[in-house]
């Protein structure tokens, strides 16, 4: 009896105590994802070009500080971050002590709440340090190598430990972006041709650490976006890092809906880079900054049911809705609510899109009123711009009619200042010219395409359809399996031999050095010069290899090599194109039109684990108005990867530029 009485008494006392104690609840992931109101945003942005004591043979970088400035600008202009929330360290400001001090301060900063978004961005040199127990490291401004020891570097394991501490105090909404690399081989920085500013942001240092470092372990405390995976190279040229340039181009694309973007979408959606393999690590299926940056709040749009029962979302291309996007349906505009169903978007109009039930899911009744919010990316269309100055009417009206005809799911017209692939220019006499924004082409002086276009809707439409096809297959890449990282491409100048091949043709063999330097090949446009290629596979399974030329000057795509169904490239073997007894194809010979001195052709290698006919990718130039561009659906499926290099063709390079 006494024990029972004491139990009842304790229950009453316990209820009284709980009633007067503050209720404390740890925020769950769903709370962080759907919490209403904007969160504090904190960023540490680091860019280092010049070093206090640079090592011989590794020049100062030219684009790291610009990358840091551009990231800072994107955070403030596109995500709404305040200038007070961004700490920007450049060159001499970015010492080891200052970087670590800023990181440690995040752990105890009272302005940062649990789950608030935190970004750490670094652009500069990285290094793989050590002879036996190699450690990847970031190199602050004051790093040095003395007495065979590395001083003031920040090991990645040390950085991970700090980020784990911050995560325990402030939550796991931490993003780390590294535009650097940790190569396992020495890298030469002398590059043939005009690419003298093409640099690798990493080095191999056979020094020892002054202290031991903890073993590097993957961590769920943050999400990492890195310019290149493993010990591969990360490049910069033209005053910026290739990775940061591609990343910001994707994020700034007027058709990219930042509020639904996930980290894996970024890696999959970024344009393919020449011999560079960005990768993501950590929780990559979460939304960018968990959707908690100031301008990343979930957006709701009314879902209307019209008389015939069809459903429409009051948002379209202007709101970055792409065809095929999934749209979650809510009963109210409430960030904390859960959707009661999901629909899929059809081809969008300018400000509205028809919604359909997802084929693989059972249909459900859509209540009225209801509200839709984008859940996934849809198709990102070709983005074109009208370059200034331009006459009123004319070109703009033609483009409007073409867009209306093709649909907003295929093409969008934006202002000249916005990210775009193709620009339209009115030239004298009323004819039109096209400009491209490809980084390699611009770095090498190719801006305006040589062909002219008559100002007729049909001709403009033909070029846009061809450009859409061209850039779709040039830019797209897949990086899930890592096949691309197991392929290497070599380019060789060929020399004719006295001996004949089995086909009684002059035998061609390589001479000199491999011309592929860091994903860029420079060739002289000379009648006597021909070139061959070697593709080596270190993949453990047979591969079917397709090789295409993507010609920037006229937007044509040519098949260079197609595989036989019965003859895949065997594991750990090589494919020779254009030389030797079994070269299989003719040597490559490059010619420039009379009115240009530079052209860029991308060589793109597609690899599949089973035979797929990829000949549909090829197309004649859309500037050849005697033929229609292809209208063939993508037949690749999901089991493919690709590798890309750029071939820059120039007239009569001086002798000293051709030495290597």
UniProtKB/TrEMBL annotation:
One of the protein's GO biological processes: apoptotic process
Entry keywords, A to Z: Apoptosis, Hydrolase, Protease, Thiol protease
Coiled-coil intervals, chain numbering: none
Annotated InterPro entries: Caspase-like_dom_sf, Pept_C14_caspase
GO molecular function term, any single one: cysteine-type endopeptidase activity
Domain Peptidase C14 caspase: 42-258
Domain of life: Eukaryota
Protein name from the UniProt record: Peptidase C14 caspase domain-containing protein
Organism: Cylindrobasidium torrendii FP15055 ss-10
């Amino acid at each position: 009896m006494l024990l029972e009485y004491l139990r009842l008494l304790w229950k009453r006392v316990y209820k009284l105590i709980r009633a007067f104690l503050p209720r404390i609840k740890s925020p769950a992931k769903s709370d962080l994802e759907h919490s209403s109101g904007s969160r504090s945003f904190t960023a540490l942005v680091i860019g280092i070009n010049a070093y206090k004591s640079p090592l011989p043979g590794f020049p100062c970088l030219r684009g790291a500080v610009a990358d840091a400035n551009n990231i800072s600008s994107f955070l403030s202009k596109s995500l709404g971050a305040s200038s007070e929330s961004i700490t920007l360290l450049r060159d001499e400001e970015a010492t080891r002590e200052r970087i670590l001090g800023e990181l440690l301060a995040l752990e105890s900063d009272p302005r940062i709440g649990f789950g608030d978004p935190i970004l750490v961005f670094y652009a500069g040199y990285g290094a793989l340090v050590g002879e036996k127990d190699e450690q990847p490291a970031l190199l602050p401004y004051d790093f040095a190598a003395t007495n065979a020891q590395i001083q003031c570097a920040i090991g990645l394991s040390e950085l991970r430990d700090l980020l784990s501490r911050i995560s325990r105090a402030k939550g796991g909404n931490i993003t780390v972006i590294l535009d650097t690399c940790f190569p396992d081989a020495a890298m030469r920085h002398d590059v043939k041709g005009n690419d003298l500013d093409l640099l690798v942001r990493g080095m191999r240092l056979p020094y020892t650490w002054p202290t031991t470092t903890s073993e590097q372990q993957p961590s769920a405390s943050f999400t990492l976006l890195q310019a290149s995976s493993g010990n591969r190279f990360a490049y910069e040229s033209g005053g910026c890092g290739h990775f940061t340039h591609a990343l910001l181009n994707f994020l700034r694309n007027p058709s990219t809906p930042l509020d639904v973007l996930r980290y894996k979408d970024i890696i999959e959606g970024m344009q393919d880079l020449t011999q560079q393999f960005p990768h993501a690590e950590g929780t990559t299926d979460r939304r960018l900054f968990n959707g908690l940056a100031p301008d990343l709040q979930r957006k709701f749009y009314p879902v209307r049911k019209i008389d015939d029962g069809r459903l429409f979302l009051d948002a379209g291309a202007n709101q970055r809705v792409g065809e095929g996007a999934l749209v979650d349906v809510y009963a109210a505009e409430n960030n904390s609510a859960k959707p009661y169903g999901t629909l899929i978007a059809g081809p969008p109009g300018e400000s509205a899109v028809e919604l359909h039930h997802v084929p693989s899911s059972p249909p459900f009744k859509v209540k009225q009123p209801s509200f839709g919010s984008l859940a996934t990316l849809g198709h990102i269309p070709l983005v074109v711009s009208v370059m200034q100055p331009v006459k009123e009417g004319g070109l703009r009206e033609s483009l409007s009619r073409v867009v209306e005809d093709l649909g907003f799911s295929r093409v969008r017209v934006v202002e000249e200042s916005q990210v775009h692939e193709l620009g339209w220019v009115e030239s004298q006499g009323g004819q039109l010219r096209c400009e491209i924004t490809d980084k390699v082409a611009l770095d090498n002086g190719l801006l305006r395409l040589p062909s002219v276009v008559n100002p007729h809707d049909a001709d403009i439409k033909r070029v846009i359809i061809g450009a859409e096809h061209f850039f779709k297959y040039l830019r797209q890449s897949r990086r899930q399996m890592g096949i691309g990282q197991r392929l290497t491409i070599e380019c060789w100048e060929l020399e004719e031999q006295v001996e004949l091949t089995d086909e009684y043709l002059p035998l061609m063999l390589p001479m000199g050095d491999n011309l592929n330097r860091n994903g860029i090949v420079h060739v002289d446009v000379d009648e006597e010069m021909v070139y061959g290629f070697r593709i080596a596979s270190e993949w453990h399974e047979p591969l079917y290899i397709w090789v295409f030329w993507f010609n920037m000057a006229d937007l044509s795509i040519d098949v260079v090599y197609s595989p036989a169904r019965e003859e895949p490239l065997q594991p750990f073997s090589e494919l020779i194109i254009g030389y030797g007894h079994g070269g299989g194809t003719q040597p490559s010979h490059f010619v420039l039109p009379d009115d240009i001195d530079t052209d860029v052709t991308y060589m793109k290698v597609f690899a599949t684990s089973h035979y797929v006919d990829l000949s549909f990718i090829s197309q004649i130039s859309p500037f050849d108005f005697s033929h229609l561009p292809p209208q063939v659906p993508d037949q690749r499926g999901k089991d493919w990867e690709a590798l890309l290099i750029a071939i820059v063709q120039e007239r009569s390079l001086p002798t000293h530029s051709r030495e290597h």
